[in-house]
Amino acid sequence: MLVVCFWIVLKALWIADNFKGLQNMDTDTLTLQRLVLPNLTVCTEFDLYFRMFGAVTPHIEAGYLSFAQGSSVRFDTYMNLFNLGTWRGFCAVDGLALQLRGTGRFRLRLREMKLDPAESQYIYDEDITLSSKPRLIDVLAAVEGHGDVGLIAVELEVLTDGVLTDGRFVVPSAPRSAGDDARIRLAISITTFRREDEVANTVRRVAAFLAEHEDECAVNGIDAHLFVVDNGQSVELDPHPKVTLMPNANLGGSGGFARGLLTAQDSGFTHCLFMDDDASFDMENLVRTMAFLRLAKDDRTAVVGAMITNTRRWAMWENGAIFNRSCQPLHAGTDLRDPFQTATMELRATEPKPAGFYGGWWYFAFPIKHVRYYPFPFFVRGDDISFSLANDFNPATLNGVVSFQDDFGGKESPLTLYLDLRNHLHHHLTQPGFLIGMLRTIKIFWRFFIRSIIRFHYETAEAKLIALSDILDGPEIFSDDADMLKKRGQILALMDNEKWKPLEADKLLEAISGTPPNTLYLFFLKFSLNGHLMPFWGLRKTGYRIIAKDRGLIWPFWGITVADFVDYDDMKSYRVAFDRAKFLRLSWRAIGLSFRFMRMYKSLLPRYRENYDKTAQKEFWLTQFHDK
After folding, report:
1. How far apart are CA 262 and CA 270, in angstroms?
2. Which pLDDT does position 10 carry in this prediction?
3. Contacts of 146 (CB under 8 A, 6+ apart)
4. The predicted structure's pLDDT at residue 174
5. Across the strands, what pairs with 105?
6. Exposed, middle or buried by CB within 10 Å (0-12, 13-18, 19+), for 435?
């Protein structure tokens, strides 16, 4: 018994000493992508990382998996699939290998994932023995003879009890060509406003990662530094050689990211990565991003991070998006727990990006040398769209490069929708290829306006009237009020019914139930603008209680006249109700502004384009930072 106990202790110490989990880095190779385990502070959906069969034990904190004989694990998941099509399409990946460490004997299979599951095939199927010495499998040799392989999944079947302590896809760390001295100097820029705890936690994690992997980055020609632009001037950080804190005037996300870009450019960085302060992400994002930029064949290459919401961490919210009259998230709703839904999304991600493709600034890495236009002073909302449309980047998405954060429905307000409409109209007045004409442009306004009317959000509808009026006043509104002090005050003064108030549970309507109305009734409701065009409609009092995250939906409003919105996390609510008089008054103003827009459309176009060319520049932001 003593011998057995002694052997177990030695085994545990050996694992702890030689294998620091799936976080190990070798300095003689460049890691493209690791087989990662969940970071429980970021995501607890294990099916996004691996699928276990039999007696598999994940040691999350230590970073390894242990197996009993006969068990198996599949990494055919969003976080751990290897998209060879994307890496080959954008990067030089000569010498690509799968590197594994651990103990025990395994049957290793590499499976090519196809759109049709029946067509999936194994391109590698061998028994291997793992030890502390890295075991390398030549991936490109395995691909030979199997056609145009795009997506690879790692599968391990355990032949003896074993442990997997490290797995990663690597290439040799030697430069891509003789005399190649191109280094990647990545400036990571976070803009924050009064989120002291959140940004401090992010800084700790990023700084620790950069310090831990400094040697490997140096060998592979990569350097990175974190800049925190503090628009609230309230953040305090411990000194760190890899972190710079920059207090800044509150010029919104546009001004914060412009400040980060300006500093990166003046400091000699080659690339910049924009990230939100409220985003939660795994450090694997940085591993993949830095390797991708280092090996990119086109120096215009940019990395676009995906987004998953904190309320549905198993579903894709946006894997890149298209802008054309509206924002259209790509692959929204994809169930990332399903290997073949995930594979379908990833195989389509290798296709050329459509016109109007853009990346959100929750995670967007780009080459500074190809920045022709700086962020435009929208304050927030729309600056990332404008930046992507105006600059000549070659964007790519990478599976597992993702940010987890609150969805936009919970953040919706008259102010955010004022900003949304304003930037939508602005893009279609300034961006080449998006000048869609007078009628189609004003139709954007009406889509925004009617959406608020149908949902009885009359204060939001009025904010949208202000947005159209401001557009008509000319482009100077953006540069003259870059900090939006005046405009924020004006919009906030509108809010009464749509202002969150302390929750009074006994006064709430019943919870929403049922489904959207049938086709015929829905047609009637749409035609009548949810009863606003029907006499006596407001006499019918019926409604529901709707949770805050669903406040952006329309279907719950069809056929009702009152609604309560409830945020149970913060114990607050507000009520909106049908009001025909407000509808008529606001609609009359909307018609008048629309005719005015149509009269002025041709004269507005050159003014807006000239202003954009002048304002979305470093020189403009220098005056803002200096004057503020």
Report:
1. 12
2. 38
3. 112, 121, 123
4. 54
5. 129
6. middle
Distance CA 57, CA 68 (A): 9
Dist CA 73 CA 156 (whole Å): 5
DSSP 545-612: EEEGGGTT-SGGGTT-SEEEEEETTTTEEEEEE--HHHHHHHHHHHHHHHHHHHHHHHHHHHHHHHHH
Cα(76)–Cα(73) distance, integer angstroms: 9
Q: Tell me, what's the pLDDT at 544?
A: 86
Quote the pLDDT of residue 341.
Answer: 95
Please give the torsion angle defined by the CA atoms of residues 358, 362, 363 and 365, in that order, rounded to the nearest 10 degrees: 70
Place of tokens 């379908």: 344
Q: Which helix (H) or strand (E) holds 544?
A: strand 543-547
Beta-bridged to residue 167, according to DSSP, are 100
Put the strands of the sheet holding 501-502 in their side by side order: 501-502, 572-577, 562-567, 543-547
| Measured CA distances, 500 to 552, 565, 585 (Å) | 15, 9, 24
**What residue ranges of the chain have pLDDT lower than 50?**
1-25, 176-179, 627-628
pLDDT of residue 548: 82
pTM listed for this prediction: 0.90
Other C-beta atoms closer than 10 Å to the C-beta of 437 total 10
**Which pLDDT score, from 0 to 100, does residue 181 have?**
55
H or E element that contains 71: none
Residue 26 is predicted with a pLDDT of: 52
Domains and CATH numbers, the chain: 14-172 (3.90.550.60), 184-406 (3.90.550.60), 411-582 (no CATH)
The number of residues making up the chain comes to: 628
